[in-house]
Amino acid sequence: MIRAARPADTEAILMLWLRSSLLSHAFIAESYWIESLQMVREDFLPKARTWVDCDENDQVCGFISVLNQQFIGALFVEASHYGDGTARRLMAAAKEAYPVLLLEVYQQNHRAVSFYRKENFEITANIRHPGTDLPTYILRWYCPLSE
Fold first, then answer.
1. Residue 23 DSSP SS3
2. Contacts of 72 by beta carbon, 8 Å cutoff, 6+ apart
3. Cα–Cα distance between 21 and 76 in angstroms, integer?
4. What is the pLDDT along the chain (147 residues), one digit of tens a residue?
5. Is 29 helix (H, G, I), strand (E, B) or coil?
6. What is the DSSP string of 107-147?
7. Got the DSSP string for 74-99?
């Protein structure tokens, strides 16, 4: 079930973010993610519009956060829910809310790059992430009816 995130979801979202970041970004030192947790809690999440996908017990199994009405700052899914449609449902919620979406993804995160390409995101730039100096793509999706 997709719904807007609630304050009571914050800890579950943060722990999912941390677990997923460590799992999907093994090419980055764990300390980078652990040190970023406070920023995610205090700066990122309060500024973002976040949706969660919950199981039948209302446990968060995935979330997507959008900043500035277009930038997907996070899309994370519990590993046990990979391939079950959670990511697609979350992306559909963001696409329904916004006619243009942008995101940055590490080029080494092949699973995520493949997912975004299937979701019709197009690579618009190759840059280096300022925090890690690793190569990333900037991707863009737009609703054809909006332009």
1. helix
2. 64, 65, 66, 94, 101, 102, 103
3. 8
4. 999 999 999 999 999 999 999 999 999 999 999 999 999 999 999 999 999 999 999 999 999 999 999 999 999 999 999 999 999 999 999 999 999 999 999 999 999 999 999 999 999 999 999 999 999 999 999 987 755
5. coil
6. TT-HHHHHHHHHTT-EEEEEEE-TTT--EEEEEEEE-GGG-
7. EEEE-GGGTTTTHHHHHHHHHHHH-S
